[in-house]
Amino acid sequence: MRLGQTSAVYLVSKVLGSVLGFLATVYFARVLGEDVLGQYALVLAVVTWLGIGGKVGINRAITKRISEGEEPEEFTGAGLVVMGAMMTIVAVAVIVFREQVNAYVGVPVAEFVVLLLFVTLYKSLINASLKGNHLVHVYAILSTGRQGTRAVAQIGLVALFGLGLSGMLWGYAIGYLVTATIGLWVLGLRPSMPGKEHIVSLFEYAKYAWLGSIRGESFETVDIAVLGFFVTQGLVGIYSVAWSIGKFLDIFGSAVSNTLFPEMSKVSAENDANAIAGLAEDGLTYAGLILIPGLVGALVIGDRLLQIYGDSFVAGTDVLAILVLALLIYTYNKQLLSILNAIDRPDLAFRANGVFIVVNVILNVILIWQIGWVGAAVATALSAAVGLVLAYYYASSYVPFSLPVAEITRQWIAAIGMGATVYVVRQLTETHWLAEYNAAFVVALVSVGAAVYFGTLFVISRTFRTTVTDNLPFDLPFVPN
């Protein structure tokens, strides 16, 4: 697989953005505490779920239709009309039921929910157009800019004006508005008045794709949303921090999925089954490249990673490991569902997504009720596994791809070697030289682990070695092909 400029830029941009988000979260955790982080996570969960009602898969339909190369301005205009109307209805509902919204979060936030709904609409429309125009690398750069702008605005409002939760929410809105506007300028795309056929075409795709939107948001927020009914805001805050660490590790898998979907969609339109299969195998080969060692690392030093946020966050150690496992399973699921959507079989993705969502919601309610907040992570992992099985069944029925078992096994071998090395270094250092917690030591452990993992994989995997050498601007001496 030659990742190329697009996926490389996407990956680097997302890493930079996630680092900025990590530093901001550490600051808020130490300054504001887990309760405010919990309230913030609940607001975003509410916005996410209500936002689905304002998009109903139209954003995915826009990406698909624009990627096909015909009448992009008209399809963008159709998306703006439909999404704008639906989001307005949702916003009115928030105002009508603002007391219930405020009671759920624990503080008055209904007006912020309305504000964030509309900036989310704006962002979604621009992102869908960028992806549809094969500008995933631009989308990634703007995503990094959004995270950076958001972090700077949030820290400034909290540190300089003492706004607390409101400062975090205002900063969130500012980050979306600024970067979405830049994206509109980069596109140079002006929505045109759509015809009836454009709106109908979007709905033809969206009638299946909307459940895909719910699938993604269900995986990322249904556990937090359900936790809001059962546990304290502090535990929600700790859970959200563990989740953010897991999402950082999922950057590469998301980069592969977002980069390959427009390409698979394009070759699908050309009826090139072999090309689709090749892209599918590439996606599955590299989906777990970071998450596999991330899972091993979470088991070995997860407690130390969480302690960076504060001593109270160490309580989420078990949750962190389970969530990383869930993300690993889910990232393979995403690659398979991308195949179905790319070959214009959203109906099959619809079925797989429907089962996943139902199982996810039911398991979250039952397991959180029975075993507490750890049950949310377990439910997320189990539902991801169910979704993976169904997605594989459908995708393998239409695309003749092979599972890259050998390459994934090599990644696990390198990860286990990494885990053993980091465990030994940690035990020796903490036993003989380091009596107290030290954040610099945690960074050192992570660096050692990364060096061992990638070094080992480079040696034992010809596929990985070829990918690296093909995408470097220079030749590596003494490196066999």
Automatic annotation (TrEMBL):
Keywords: Cell membrane, Membrane, Transmembrane, Transmembrane helix. GO terms for cellular component: plasma membrane. It is a multi-pass membrane protein. It is found in: Cell membrane. The chain crosses the membrane at residues 7-28, 78-97, 103-126, 169-189, 224-245, 283-301, 313-332, 352-369, 376-396, 408-425, 437-460. This is Polysaccharide biosynthesis protein. It comes from Natronolimnohabitans innermongolicus JCM 12255. The lineage of its organism: Archaea, Methanobacteriati, Methanobacteriota, Stenosarchaea group, Halobacteria.
